[in-house]
Each structure stands twice: as structure tokens, then as C-alpha cells.
């Protein structure tokens, strides 16, 4: 029941609901493409992710059919290579990450008492990037041009020489495109969790789920850029012959492995953390007591986030890594067992001290505990280097991986699905069908993968498309395959169950599981604005301490209960204490995210079919769309001519100097910085390790031009900083002219950099040295152009009166970019000019 129609509400409050419904309305028909609301976008992510899960599952069944019998001719080995590569790729990139992000996008604002995420248009954009990228990737299967070098695309197998065709290109371009979506969601989840919690929700009162998602999102922000860089470099190698991973040209294929696993290992935790977050949310509800050791769990999450970045090398134990490094990474890999162990003990203690009730979501959690612990045990075995050498790349590893991934992610996800279903649909799930599908999936899973440990120990390698009967693996493989089909039947039943549920489920009460968190204090199914009024919270379990909360919220008794200004608003609060700081004015529905993503999809397709001029045009179009979109940011006066707020409220965020936009810029630069550091890592790695790397005796880069560009950048940054200081003193004299001046300095920097590149006469398709240098210079050039462009726009906006002493936020945001450029430029100068010159090109 949506409470707009609640006849028991007094007329004033009903008008408030109606006003909210009008301002937050989602258009239908074609207009649905403009929707930015987190509830809709989150659902889209989840449904799309589920479709990709089915595609990935279908591919898994093809694999199991092929392996069911020895000497099977069901598929050719070429097809098999494509099928297992796409199975891994679809499951990891198109199912696991996006569906978990979908859950987070859907749940987080509801759990922290916000009306939406902080950059709703960014999530809409991310969704379309995901959708288009996913379609491009999977269409390669239909075209029989799918990637065939496995989901980690090791070079040189995936390089031009051994993978001619378009398969690798589909992967590299498609994945990069999809990663844009993961990053957008990552950035906006971090900022939303830190800056838009409802009044009083201090960091230590935040629901555990938000902690887990915060860690996941930060890990995405830091962990995904190395892969994006790797993909770009490999695509440059394939398309333009730049030999980053080719030994003959001074590159090194192991660099790919490092860049891939710098991403790939954290990826496993990125997948596990939200799963564990669901467990930590549901378990106390069904144990009917608060979680034991909230602080311990938070500590475990933080520790896990940190150690997981130090572990990537354990995927490369057999790649010829120095002995000492092996010992270090082996020990470190075992350390992860500690935070995992803490969480498992906390869960068991909570169950032990509570009065647990069994229900469908709980069944999935028990299944998770069993499977995940088994997967953890084989994980500790694999961290032992000698054992790892024995079973490396056998089905033992495939078994371990699925115990961790399916146990750690799919089971909690399904627990969460049943748990939050009443919120989404307003109906209760059925216990009977649900139990059947649980047992089919649980037993089917164990039958499939438990025996794979034995096939692996008996020496069956992964990724072989068939085997000889004499090896004695027949019966194990047959059992595995039967288990796989059992599991598929369970999934089919699950889908049937959910579909029937939306039609026939019985009505859910307000708080069906008697949960303590805020998402159960809203109408079911949720209205686009979530809460008509935003409560002030003092406790971690608002609904346990105040069961009346849903009623008082709906009656408009709490904060931000006005709609007079016609704005979409939510609280902006202090990251630590949850004290109110500003009213965040959120943007409304828009076509720009859709158009921008569409233009990028065109870029991607043009690159694939090697229509480079057209790709260039499409890139320009995409940039124009993105700029047009950014023009409406920062509470455009057209959208909100009236910047006043209700008496007693904090100011509108664009009237402050530290609104969430500043945070978004900073978190984006965390991602950007991770990409840059990966690039520096690549430079030094090749310099010191690649056997054929050649450093010229003298740098090809002109010192005066480099220094001139740096000077322009430094002056521009100083000037911009001065303008911002004046704004702080509430003065905007000379702001417009100053902005144009800074833009001019940025343009000068770009021009000088262009000259540096032109005069250097690099031969990027001959040596990895020149190729890496060119990429690094292009990176700073793009940033210089961006800095100039944004200042130019700022100059215009000052002229229009959008920015000034009254609305000082945007220059602060742009200044962050200039600071970033400054650090990057000079550190790069040291790395590519000073150090090589001092060391005399010693290789
Ligand atoms: C639905 C049941 C599933 C079955 C029956 C299944 C089966 C398999 C099999 C037999 C392989 C080995 C291919 C080979 O090495 O030749 C494999 C690989 C893989 N699976 Fe699954 N899988 C399932 C679900 C999942 C899920 C849910 C995920 C991730 C969330 C996943 C991720 C992977 C990955 C990353 C690989 C490695 C692919 C490669 O070697 O390149 N699988 N799967
Ligand atoms: Cu790992």
C-alpha cells in the first residue's frame, strides 16, 4: 500500500505525500530511460545481473555436458575455449559485481535514511554502461568470435600473435566499458555512505551492511583501475602494435599478470564482502538479538580490505617469482584467515547467545556457512606453496574457487533475496517451493564441486576440453555433471518461485521479520522518495527501540518534511558524527546519462571494427554529452531558482564550500590515482625486469618544454587556489576573469605538452619504452585539457551568475582536479625525466 492513498492521514500530510510523489515521479514509456532514482536503477542492475547469471549458468551446463564423458565430441576445442572463457567472464564481470552493486544501490539509501544516492545520474549512467557493455560482450558468443584465452586473458596467449581474431578485443573493450559502471557505482556508494546518512547516524551507529558496502566500494575504487589500465595497454598492443607485453619489443607478459591480479585478487573480496554483509545483517534478525561484537566485525572488515591488496601474487606462485617473495605472500595469504575467522566466530556467537528462529533466509545462511568454511579450508591449503605447485591449474582449484565464490556470494545473495523480497514486492515469500529449490541447489552444488577436488588431485587439468578414459576420471566427471544439472533444476525452481511470488504471495506486514534497520520503516513497495520525513537516530536498531517509527515517519513528524521548493532533497551530514551540515539538492531525471553511455557504446563498437576516425567522432560526441550533463550539476539555478531553505535548516549544499561534490571529486581521484600508480608501476617494472627493455642514453623529452608546461600548471593551480581562498572570504571579485586566466594556463600547458610529444619523435610501436612514455604523456595531456575545459566552463558559469560568493562550491571541486594534476605531473616528471637522466639510462 503506498501511503499517498492512506485515508487515515490528515489532509496536510496527504498533500505532503502527493507533493513528494510529484517531484520524485518516474516517467513511463520511453521516458523510463531517463529515470535516475536509486530504487529503479538498483532493480535494473539486479534484474540484468540475474539474466547474465542465467547466461553464465547455461555456459556452465555446456561445459559440464562436454566433460560428462571421456572423448566427448559435443563441442570442438575452439568452442570449448570460448565457452569456459565466457563462463568465467560473464560470472565475474557481468553477474557477481553488478548484481551486488545493484543490491547496494537499492538498499543503502533506505538503510541510512536517505532519499536517494548522492549522484543519481551517475548510477543511471553506470547502468547503461553495464547494459551496453554486457550486450557487446555476450554478442561475441553469438558471432562465434568470443574471447578464448580464459577469464584472466594471460598474455602472450591473448596477444595478437596467438589470438588473432576479435575475441580478445571484445573482452578488452567490453570489460573496460563495464568497469566504468562498476567505478561509477563505487564512487557514489562511498560518498553516499559517508555524507548522506540521516541526522545522528554516527559512523559507529551505521548498520553493518553499510560498513561492508563502504569497504567493497572503496576496494572497487582502488582495485579496478589496474585492470582498466591493463586492458587499455593490451588493446593498444593489439591494435597499434605497442609492445607492452611482448618481450622482443622490451615488454614483459608478466606485467599483464601483475596488473590483472592487482585487480583480480581484491575482486574476490569485493565479491565476498557484500555477501558477508548480508549475513551480518540477517543473522541477528533471525537470532533475535544484536550482533555480538559490532566493533570486531568493523575491524575485521577494515583489516580484510587492507590485506587483500597485498596478496595478488599468490595467484602467480608458479610463474617464477623470487623465493623470498613466495614465502612472504604465502604467509600473508594465510593471514586473511584471521579476519574471516573473526566474522565466523561472531556469527556463531550471535546464534549461540540468541534465540534463533529458522526460516527460508536462514536456511541459505546455514548453507553459506557450510560451503564457505569448506572453501576457506582448501584456500589455506592452496596458500602453501608446495601444495600449490602440485594442484596448480587443476580441477582442485576450480573446486576451491566455486566453494568460495558460490558459497561466499551466491548463497548470501539468495538469503538476501528472500529476506528483502517483502520490501520490494510487499508480499511474503513461500516457504515450500523455496525449500525445494534450496535443497536442489545446495545438494547439486556439493555433488558438482566436492568430487572436483578428487578429479583435480588425480591430475585433471582445468580448461582441457576432453580426456582419455584410461585416466580413470570418468565416474567423477559424470557425477559432477549430474550434480550440475541438479543445481540447474534448483535455479529453475527458484525463478518459478519468485515469479509466482509477485502474483500470489500473501501481503507482508510492515516489519515481517521484526528487523531493527531502517529500510523496514518505509512503505512497501517503496516510494521513489523512500521517506516522507527523515528521522533523527540515536541507536543502531531504530526499529527495535522505537516500533512506532514507520508511523511517525509516514506522518511527516521528522526532518526535511517540506516540498514547497519543488526540489529533490536529502540530508548531507558529517562523515563521522552524522551531524547535519547541508541540504543536498539532488538532480532529477535526465536523458544525458543514457545518451552519454550510448555514445560510449558507439566508441566501443567502432574500436572493435577498427573504424578509428568514426571512433574519434563518437568520442567527441560523448564528451559533449558529458559536458552538457555536467552543466546541470551543482544545483543549476534553472532547476532551483530559489536557494532558500526552511527556517532552522542548514544551507543548500551548493551554498557551502565542502558539499558532497568535493567528496565525489576526491573519491574519483582515488580511482584515477590508482590508475596512475599502476602506470608508474608498469614503467618501473618494465625498466627493472623486462629482459629486452631499452632505456635511451638521453631522454627524448625536451626539458625546457616539459618545465614550461609544468610552470603553466603550477601557476594555474596557484591562481585557482587564490580564487578559492577569496571565495572563502566571501569575495568573488575577479572570479570570472580569473577562471578564464586559469583556463588559459591549462591550454598553454596542453599546447606545450603537445609539443613535447611531437618533438620527441617516439617510436611507440618499436619499443616498450617509447610506448609507455607515450601513454604516460597522453595521460597528463588529457588531464591538462580537462583542467582547462572545466575552468572555461566555470568562467561561463560565473558570467551566468550560477557560481559566485553565494554559490562557491564548484570552484572548490575544480581545484581538487588541479591539485591532482599538479602532483601527477611533477611526479611523472621525476619518473620519466629526472631518474632516467640521473641513472643514465642504465637498464
Ligand atoms: C552454476 C553452477 C556452476 C557450474 C556448474 C560451474 C562450472 C564450472 C566449470 C566446470 C569450470 C571449469 C572450466 C575449465 O576450467 O575448463 C568453471 C570455471 C569457472 N567458473 Fe564456474 N560454474 C558455476 C557457477 C559459477 C559462479 C556462480 C561463478 C562466479 C561467481 C563462477 C566462476 C567461474 C570462473 C571464474 C571460472 C574460471 C574460468 C576460467 O578458467 O577461465 N562459476 N565453472
Ligand atoms: Cu587471491
Keywords for this structure?
mainly alpha; 66% helix; 24 helices; binds protoporphyrin IX containing FE; two-stranded antiparallel sheet; binds copper (II) ion; 843 residues
Helix content: 55-70%
Instruction: Trace the largest sheet across and list its strands.
Output: 1-2
Total strand segments: 2
Shape, principal axes of CA atoms? globular
Could you name the ranges where pLDDT drops below 50 across 5 or more consecutive residues? none
Cα radius of gyration in angstroms: 27 Å
Please indicate the percent range of residues in DSSP E strands (runs of 2 or more): under 5%
What characterizes the major β-sheet? 2 strands, antiparallel
The end-to-end distance, rounded to whole angstroms, is 71 Å
Q: Name the bound molecules.
A: protoporphyrin IX containing FE, copper (II) ion
Mean pLDDT: 92
Give the topology string: H per helix, E per strand: HHHHHHHHHHHHHHHHHEEHHHHHHH
Q: What would you call the structural class?
A: mainly alpha
Q: Tally the helices.
A: 24
What does this structure look like?
The chain has 843 residues and is mainly alpha-helical. It contains 24 helices and two strands. It has helices at 11-23, 38-67, 77-112, 120-142, 167-195, 208-240, 253-287, 294-309, 323-335, 337-353, 360-383, 385-391, 395-425, 431-457, 474-504, 542-545, 549-554, 592-608, 612-631, 660-689, 703-728, 735-760, 768-800, 809-839, and strands at 568-573, 580-586. A two-stranded antiparallel ribbon has the order 1-2. A hairpin with a 6-residue loop joins strand 1 (568-573) and strand 2 (580-586). The longest helix is centred in the first third of the chain and has 36 residues, at 77-112. The chain is globular. The model has no long low-confidence stretch (mean pLDDT 92). It binds protoporphyrin IX containing FE and copper (II) ion. The site of protoporphyrin IX containing FE (HEM) has 24 residues, from helix 2, helix 3, helix 13 and helix 15.
Amino acid at each position: 500500500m503506498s501511503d499517498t492513498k492512506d485515508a487515515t492521514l490528515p489532509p496536510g500530510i496527504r498533500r505532503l505525500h502527493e507533493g513528494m510523489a510529484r517531484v520524485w515521479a518516474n516517467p513511463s514509456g520511453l521516458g523510463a530511460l531517463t529515470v535516475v532514482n536509486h530504487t529503479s536503477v538498483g532493480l535494473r542492475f539486479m534484474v540484468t545481473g540475474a539474466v547474465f547469471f542465467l547466461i553464465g549458468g547455461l555456459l556452465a551446463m555446456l561445459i559440464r555436458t562436454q566433460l560428462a564423458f571421456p572423448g566427448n565430441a559435443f563441442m570442438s576445442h575452439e568452442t570449448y575455449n570460448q565457452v569456459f572463457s565466457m563462463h568465467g567472464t560473464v560470472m565475474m564481470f557481468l553477474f557477481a559485481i553488478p548484481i551486488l552493486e545493484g543490491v547496494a544501490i537499492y538498499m543503502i539509501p533506505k538503510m541510512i535514511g536517505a532519499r536517494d544516492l548522492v549522484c543519481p545520474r551517475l548510477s543511471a549512467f553506470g547502468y547503461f554502461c553495464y547494459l551496453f557493455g554486457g550486450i557487446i560482450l555476450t554478442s561475441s558468443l553469438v558471432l562465434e568470435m568470443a574471447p578464448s584465452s580464459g577469464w584472466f586473458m594471460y598474455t602472450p596467449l591473448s596477444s595478437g600473435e596467438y589470438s588473432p581474431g576479435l575475441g580478445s578485443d571484445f573482452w578488452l573493450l567490453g570489460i573496460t566499458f563495464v568497469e566504468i559502471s562498476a567505478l561509477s557505482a563505487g564512487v557514489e556508494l562511498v560518498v553516499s555512505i559517508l555524507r548522506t546518512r540521516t541526522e545522528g547516524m554516527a559512523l559507529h551507529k551505521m548498520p553493518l551492511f553499510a560498513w561492508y558496502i563502504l569497504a567493497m566500494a572503496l576496494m572497487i575504487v582502488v582495485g579496478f583501475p589496474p585492470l582498466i589500465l591493463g586492458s587499455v595497454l593490451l588493446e593498444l598492443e593489439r591494435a597499434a602494435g605497442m609492445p607492452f607485453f611482448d618481450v622482443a619489443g622490451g615488454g614483459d607478459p608478466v606485467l599483464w599478470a601483475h596488473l590483472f591480479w592487482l585487480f583480480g585478487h581484491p575482486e574476490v573480496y569485493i565479491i565476498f564482502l557484500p555477501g558477508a554483509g548480508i549475513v551480518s545483517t540477517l543473522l541477528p534478525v533471525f537470532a533475535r538479538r544484536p550482533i555480538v561484537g559490532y566493533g570486531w566485525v568493523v575491524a575485521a572488515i577494515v583489516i580484510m580490505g587492507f590485506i587483500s591488496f597485498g596478496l595478488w601474487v599468490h595467484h602467480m606462485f608458479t610463474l617464477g617469482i623470487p623465493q623470498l617473495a613466495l614465502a612472504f605472500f604465502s604467509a600473508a595469504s594465510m593471514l586473511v584467515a584471521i579476519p574471516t575467522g573473526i566474522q565466523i566466530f561472531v556469527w556463531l556467537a550471535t546464534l549461540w547467545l540468541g534465540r534463533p528462529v529458522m526460516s527460508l533466509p536462514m536456511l541459505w545462511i546455514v548453507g553459506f556457512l557450510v560451503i564457505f568454511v569448506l572453501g576457506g579450508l582448501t584456500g589455506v591449503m592452496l596458500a602453501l606453496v608446495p601444495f600449490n605447485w602440485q594442484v596448480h591449474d587443476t580441477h582442485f582449484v576450480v573446486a576451491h574457487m566455486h566453494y568460495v565464490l558460490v558459497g561466499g556470494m551466491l548463497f548470501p545473495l539468495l538469503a538476501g533475496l528472500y529476506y528483502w523480497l517483502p520490501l520490494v514486492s510487499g508480499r511474503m515469500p513461500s516457504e515450500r517451493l523455496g525449500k525445494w529449490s534450496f535443497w536442489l541447489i545446495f545438494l547439486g552444488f556439493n555433488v558438482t564441486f566436492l568430487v572436483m577436488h578428487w578429479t583435480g588431485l588425480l591430475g585433471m587439468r582445468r580448461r582441457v576440453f576432453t580426456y582419455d578414459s584410461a585416466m580413470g576420471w570418468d565416474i567423477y566427471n559424470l557425477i559432477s555433471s549430474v550434480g550440475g544439472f541438479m543445481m540447474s533444476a534448483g535455479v529453475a525452481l527458484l525463478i518459478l518461485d519468485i515469479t509466482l511470488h509477485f502474483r500470489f504471495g500473501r501481503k507482508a506486514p510492515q516489519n515481517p521479520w521484526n528487523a531493527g534497520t531502517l529500510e523496514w520503516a518505509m512503505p512497501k513497495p517503496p516510494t521513489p522518495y523512500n521517506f516522507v520525513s527523515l528521522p533523527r537516530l540515536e541507536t543502531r536498531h531504530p526499529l527495535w527501540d522505537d516500533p512506532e517509527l514507520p508511523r511517525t515517519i509516514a506522518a511527516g513528524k521528522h526532518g526535511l518534511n517540506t516540498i514547497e521548493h519543488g526540489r529533490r532533497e536529502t540530508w548531507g551530514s558529517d562523515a563521522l558524527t552524522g551531524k547535519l551540515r547541508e541540504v543536498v539538492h539532488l538532480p532529477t531525471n535526465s536523458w544525458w546519462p543514457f545518451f552519454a553511455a550510448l555514445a560510449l557504446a558507439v566508441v566501443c563498437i567502432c574500436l572493435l571494427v577498427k573504424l578509428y576516425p568514426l571512433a574519434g567522432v563518437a568520442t567527441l560526441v560523448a564528451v559533449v554529452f558529458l559536458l552538457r550533463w555536467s552543466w546541470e550539476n551543482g544545483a543549476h539555478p534553472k532547476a532551483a531558482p530559489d536557494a532558500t531553505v526552511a527556517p532552522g535548516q542548514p544551507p543548500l549544499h551548493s551554498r557551502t564550500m565542502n558539499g558532497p561534490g568535493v567528496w565525489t571529486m576526491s573519491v574519483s581521484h582515488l580511482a584515477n590515482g590508482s590508475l596512475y600508480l599502476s602506470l608508474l608501476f608498469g614503467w618501473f617494472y618494465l625498466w627493472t625486469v623486462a629482459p629486452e627493455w631499452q632505456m635511451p642514453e638521453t631522454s627524448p623529452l625536451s626539458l625546457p618544454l616539459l618545465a614550461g608546461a609544468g610552470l603553466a600548471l603550477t601557476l594555474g593551480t596557484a591562481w585557482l587556489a587564490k580564487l578559492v581562498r577569496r571565495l572563502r572570504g566571501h569575495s568573488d571579485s575577479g572570479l570570472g576573469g580569473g577562471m578564464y586566466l586559469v583556463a588559459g594556463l591549462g591550454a598553454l600547458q596542453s599546447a606545450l605538452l603537445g609539443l613535447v610529444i611531437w618533438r620527441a619523435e617516439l617510436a611507440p610501436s618499436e619499443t616498450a619504452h617509447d610506448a609507455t612514455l607515450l601513454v604516460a604523456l597522453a595521460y597528463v595531456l588529457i588531464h591538462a585539457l580537462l583542467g582547462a575545459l572545466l575552468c572555461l566552463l566555470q568562467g561561463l558559469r560565473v558570467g551566468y551568475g550560477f557560481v559566485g560568493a553565494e554559490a562557491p562550491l564548484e570552484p572548490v571541486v575544480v581545484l581538487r582536479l588541479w591539485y591532482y594534476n599538479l602532483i601527477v605531473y611533477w611526479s611523472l616528471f621525476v619518473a620519466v625525466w629526472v631518474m632516467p637522466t640521473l641513472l643514465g639510462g642504465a637498464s
